[in-house]
Write a structure and sequence with these properties.
Blueprint (H helix, E strand, L loop, with lengths): L1 E5 L5 E7 L2 H4 L5 H15 L58 H17 L3 E4 L9 H10 L7 E5 L4 H7 L5 E5 L5 H6 L2 E5 H11 L2
Parallel strand pairs: 1-3, 3-6, 4-5, 4-6
Antiparallel strand pairs: 1-2
Helix pairs in contact: 2-3, 4-5
Length: 209
């Protein structure tokens, strides 16, 4: 699949880049995508939720009233889950939500997500992206020139570029990652995928195995 290469002004440079079929034209595997996104979201969870059981509640240990003769139910402790302020039965406890996925499955999921974007013509390829300074207006001008200012965009760079990253940070619908940080969730969450010619090569080297 050939895509025209644009410059930072949104104009065609006359060059074209070939998106490798082994990465951008595979048969999508929806279940692999589901597992990879599920793992990504699970890894975002802190898992620090905690409720107190009856043995952790601060309170008196005296028996509330005598066992028989009151006409009410037997009660042994104010900490019982039956009373307000008592412990919670089977409440949440701290836990780790992360789980393991095979490397090949994660690669298949990323290739499937990229193939969906390519099939929908939602991939824009730029010759290079670099700013002389870190200013939000630089990135705002870029997405405006590409007519994607109102859409969620994901810019994939071949290597870390602080000026580009810092310029995008204040924009709600913009995200910048490097090719080695690319994940399935970010690809699917973005409406438009912005690549550079170098990041296409980097993705091919990493995923076309």
């Amino acid at each position: 699949m050939e895509v025209k290469v644009l410059n930072l002004s949104g104009q065609e440079t006359g060059a074209k880049v070939q998106l490798p079929e082994s990465v951008f034209a595979v048969e999508p595997n929806d279940h692999a995508i589901y597992l990879d996104v599920k793992q990504y979201l699970a890894n975002q969870r802190q898992g620090t939720h905690k409720s107190k059981q009856r043995n952790e509640i601060a309170g008196s240990t005296r028996k509330l009233h005598k066992q028989k003769g009151t006409g009410g139910a037997r009660a042994g402790s104010i900490k019982s889950p039956l009373f307000n302020g008592g412990g919670r039965v089977f409440g949440p406890q701290p836990r780790d939500y992360s789980f393991k996925l095979n490397k090949k499955l994660k690669q298949l999921a990323r290739k499937s997500a990229l193939s969906y974007k390519a099939a929908e013509n939602n991939i824009v390829v730029l010759d290079a992206v670099d700013f002389s300074d870190a200013k939000t207006k630089n990135y705002a001008s870029l997405v405006a020139a590409l007519n994607v200012a109102t859409e969620k965009t994901l810019l994939v760079l071949p290597a870390q570029n602080n000026n580009v990253y810092l310029s995008s940070r204040n924009l709600k619908k913009a995200k910048v990652v490097t090719a080695d940080q690319l994940n399935t969730f970010d690809v699917l969450n973005a409406t438009k995928l912005l690549l550079t010619t170098d990041s296409v090569k980097t993705l091919e080297e990493a995923l076309a195995k």
